Amino acid sequence: MRNRTTSRPFTGVEAYRITRFLSEGIGQRVAESDADRAAALFIADLFRGAGLTVSTQEFPLPSGGASCNVFAYRGPIMPESYIVVGAHYDSVAGTGGANDNASGVGVLLETAISLAGVALPVPIVYVAFGAEEGPHAGSKHFVAELSGVSSVIGMVNLDAVGVADGMEIGCYGEVDPWLAAHCQETAESLGFHLTDTHFGGKSDYASFADAGIPVACFARTDQPTAHTPDDNMSLISQQGMAEIGTILVNALVSLDPGMWMTK
Ligand SMILES: [Zn+2]
Predict the structure, then answer these.
(1) Minimal CA–CA distance to 229: which of 125, 102, 98?
(2) What is the pTM of this model?
(3) Exposure class string for 44-63: b at 16+ Cβ within 10 A, else e
(4) Interatomic CA distance for residues 225 and 204, integer angstroms
(5) CA 234–ligand 1 middle distance (angstroms)
(6) Count of CB atoms situated within 10 Å of the CB of 144
(7) Which DSSP category does 3 fall into?
(8) Would you say residue 233 has pLDDT above 60?
(9) What is the mean pLDDT of the chain?
(10) How far is CA 113 from CA 34, 135, 243, in A?
């Protein structure tokens, strides 16, 4: 595939379609259930369709049983140094988890599709994490399996990004906030308003930040239905997902090693 210099426009069409399939077609995705495994297979297929190499990583659940992370990258082997863009695909019991977090997976996958064939300043590894709900078991396992944490330059997390209001970018812990700041600057340059937040550690970004890896977390504040049966497609905004996806794609293509090499 010839490299293109610009990404496809991020319309939110794919993100919305994927969010609907995960939340309504598959439904609740509790770790280790058949639906959880079906979601992982669906995600792997879409990564392959975007021309990426797919790996799965099984891990044990604290409550017994197992789930898996699905991750994808260009070329035959995992890059040595890369940015992680991640979203969890599991949901709590009793809900299809449209916003939390089929929406994050939708934006993750449309990002991979938008950037297919685009020349990137730094390799990206896309990760759909299993078993975030509860103790963040999937992302903790991913970080624990890294041969050296220095190989992950930074991690962008997408969790509950499907509604229309209250767009936020957040950092966590004591890590260098350069990646969140870069996403914020990108948003401003595109005319979007992102509220700066310091999050409390309730998603997969915490596993990376706790290992000293810089993080940036996209979220939407307006989540009245989180972890309830009402977390369904009636809340989901294609336009809202397109806004976050547009910021993310532009932030990824404008990364510059000077942002982290001089630290
Ligand atoms: Zn979540």
Answers:
(1) 98
(2) 0.96
(3) bebbeebebebbebebebee
(4) 20
(5) 18
(6) 10
(7) P
(8) yes
(9) 93
(10) 26, 30, 16
User: What's the average model confidence in pLDDT over 81-108?
Assistant: 97
Give 133 Cα–ligand 1 centroid separation in angstroms: 7
Check residue 24 and report its DSSP letter.
Answer: I
Rounded distance between C-alpha atoms, residue 247 and residue 232, angstroms: 24
Q: Which two tokens stand for residue 139?
A: 């992302």
- Tokens matching residue 189: 């340059």
Query: Which distant-in-sequence residues (6+ apart) come within 8 Å of 3 by Cβ?
Result: 117, 118, 119
Residue 104 has pLDDT above 80, yes or no: yes
CA of 38 to the centre of ligand 1 (A): 18
Q: Which domains are seen in the chain, by residue range? A: 13-256 (3.40.630.10)
| Ligand 1 center to 77 CA (angstroms) | 29
Could you tell me the distance, in angstroms and rounded to a whole number, from the CA of residue 258 to the centre of ligand 1? 32
β-strands 215-220, 152-158 pairing:
parallel
Kindly list the distances between the CA atom of residue 186 and the CA atoms of 24, 169, 179, 255, in Å, as whole numbers in the listed order: 33, 11, 11, 10
Residue of 211, 245, 200, 234 whose CA lies nearest to 23:
234
Nearest Cα neighbor of 39 from 5, 88, 108 is: 88
Centre of ligand 1 from the C-alpha of residue 160, in Å: 6
